[in-house]
């Protein structure tokens, strides 16, 4: 176990690799600080040594946002809940805490986040820094649920920011790409734990797109998956319920979530990778494999699910009003191409928020995520999809594959210059820079 003072040899460490395996970096040294003081000291030393620095979570980003050739900061010891303020409805948590540990700890305290994404392996700081989100009519991304942040800057200064304290930093650092400093603690808004009733059922592509506005308006959380090469979708509606909890039975859950959604899905993707011509036929079967079901449970057990099949992903946010047209163009493109797509396309929504570089900043948004099984060539599919997304003023998810650059983002985000000016102020020497940030934020 290394600490801020214990990894100063300067020799190359073992290469770091992300979850998908498409990003690798070889830092000069690593630290695992156990306190904010140790984190500050590690950054001051890195600055003195002329090293760049990046924190890294669980590597669930598909981009090189966390890659560094300098100091790699591992947050494994910066975990746990600092305090719960029931009167204010907040919880302050250390930045390296995995979402799954936070969700379980909050549930034991009778509390919950209002909304969350569909996986919970990420650290809280990694999740917010790249804009992790779920789906919601009124409730937004994880970053939008932040009430305050503790940020350690390039010179080791510890800043606290909120709507009242350093509000310009707060607006940007809630989704900061690791470009402004290293987050050491986050204060989230929480509420008393509640129940959600999930209703999952198949629906045709034509029906779900023609009725999308009504489905969105009628449900607190609506999402669906379209299976390429078919006209079939699976829909999910999550709405608050008085309870009591009625989770899927153990056999049903095992069949649906482990055998069909992970085990069998792994097998069919492996077959599809070996024999691409089999994919359309497999898709027709897969799209009908999951049956309709309804269940009720506490939020994180409804919002999240295991994802054991590894893949590559691109996701874009488009104006919600443009969703159906964008999705229909994507479907037409797939049908007219020679592409063979074994993963469903995921569609979610978010209300507008006020975070500087949030994909939903200033506009109600819909998300379209395209995936390819890991090891399968994905470039042709993603390039064609990206062409459609950008034609509809799409904003790519910051942690997922895309080819956009600073010039594009300057047009896509009205407050882009506000963010880069703040970066110039907090990190003028680009201690937290890397090749990815140079591309998306400019030099």
How would you characterize this protein structure?
The chain has 443 residues and is α+β, with helices and mostly antiparallel strands. It has helices at residues 36-48, 99-108, 124-130, 167-173, 205-210, 212-218, 250-274, 279-286, 299-303, 323-336, 379-391, 406-412, 416-426, 435-441, and strands spanning 16-17, 24-25, 29-31, 53-55, 71-73, 81-85, 90-94, 111-112, 146-152, 158-162, 182-189, 191-192, 195-204, 221-226, 232-241, 293-297, 311-319, 345-350, 365-373, 395-396. It has an eight-stranded antiparallel beta sheet with strand order 16-13-15-14-18-19-17-20. The chain has a five-stranded antiparallel beta sheet with strand order 6-7-11-9-10. A three-stranded parallel beta sheet has the order 3-5-4, with helices on one face. Helix 10 packs antiparallel against helix 11 and helix 12 (406-412) crosses helix 14 (435-441). The chain is globular and about 60 Å long.
Gross morphology is: globular
**What percent of residues are in strands?**
15-25%
Spatial gap, N to C terminus? 35 Å
What structural class do the secondary elements suggest?
Answer: alpha+beta
Radius of gyration: 21 Å
> Please, how many helices?
14
pLDDT < 50 stretches: 1-12
Biggest beta sheet attributes? 8 strands, antiparallel
Read across the widest sheet, the strand sequence of neighbours is 16-13-15-14-18-19-17-20
Number of strands: 20
| Approximate helicity band | 25-40%
Mean pLDDT: 92
Q: How would you describe the oligomerization state of the chains in this entry?
A: single chain
């Amino acid at each position: 176990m290394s600490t801020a003072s214990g990894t100063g040899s300067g020799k190359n460490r073992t290469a770091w690799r992300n979850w998908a395996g498409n990003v690798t970096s070889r830092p000069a040294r690593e630290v695992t600080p156990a306190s904010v003081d140790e984190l500050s000291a590690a950054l001051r030393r890195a600055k003195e040594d002329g090293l760049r620095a990046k924190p890294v979570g669980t590597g669930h980003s598909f981009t090189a946002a966390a890659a560094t050739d300098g100091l790699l900061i591992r947050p494994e010891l910066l975990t746990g809940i600092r305090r719960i303020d029931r009167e204010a409805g907040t919880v302050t948590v250390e930045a390296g805490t995995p979402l799954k540990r936070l969700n379980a700890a909050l549930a034991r305290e009778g509390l919950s986040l209002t909304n969350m994404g569909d996986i919970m392996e990420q650290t809280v700081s990694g999740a917010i820094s790249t804009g992790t989100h779920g789906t919601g009519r009124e409730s937004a991304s994880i970053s939008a649920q932040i009430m305050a942040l503790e940020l350690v800057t390039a010179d080791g200064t510890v800043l606290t920011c909120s709507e009242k304290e350093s509000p310009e930093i707060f607006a940007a650092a809630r989704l900061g790409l690791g470009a402004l400093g290293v987050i050491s603690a986050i204060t989230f808004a929480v509420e008393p734990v509640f129940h959600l009733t999930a209703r999952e059922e198949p629906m045709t592509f034509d029906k779900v797109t023609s009725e999308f506005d009504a489905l969105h308006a009628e449900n607190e959380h609506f999402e669906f998956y379209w299976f390429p090469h078919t006209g079939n979708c699976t829909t999910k509606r999550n709405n608050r319920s008085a309870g009591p909890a009625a989770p899927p039975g153990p056999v049903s859950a095992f069949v649906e979530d482990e055998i069909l959604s992970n085990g069998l899905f792994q097998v069919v993707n492996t077959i599809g990778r070996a024999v691409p011509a089999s994919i359309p036929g497999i898709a027709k079967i897969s799209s009908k494999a999951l049956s309709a079901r309804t269940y009720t449970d506490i939020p994180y057990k409804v919002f999240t699910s295991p994802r054991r099949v590894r893949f590559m992903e691109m996701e874009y946010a488009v104006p919600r009003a443009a969703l159906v047209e964008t999705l229909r163009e994507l479907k037409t493109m797939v049908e007219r191409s020679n592409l063979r797509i074994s993963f469903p396309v995921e569609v979610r929504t978010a209300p507008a928020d006020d975070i500087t570089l949030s994909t939903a900043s200033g506009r109600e948004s819909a998300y379209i995520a395209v995936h390819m099984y890991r090891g399968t060539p994905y470039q042709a599919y993603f390039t064609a999809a990206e062409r459609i997304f950008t034609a509809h003023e799409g904003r790519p998810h910051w942690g997922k594959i895309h080819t956009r650059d600073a010039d594009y983002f300057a047009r896509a985000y009205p407050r882009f210059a506000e963010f880069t000016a703040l970066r110039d102020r907090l990190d003028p020497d680009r201690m937290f820079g890397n090749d990815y940030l140079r591309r998306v934020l400019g030099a």
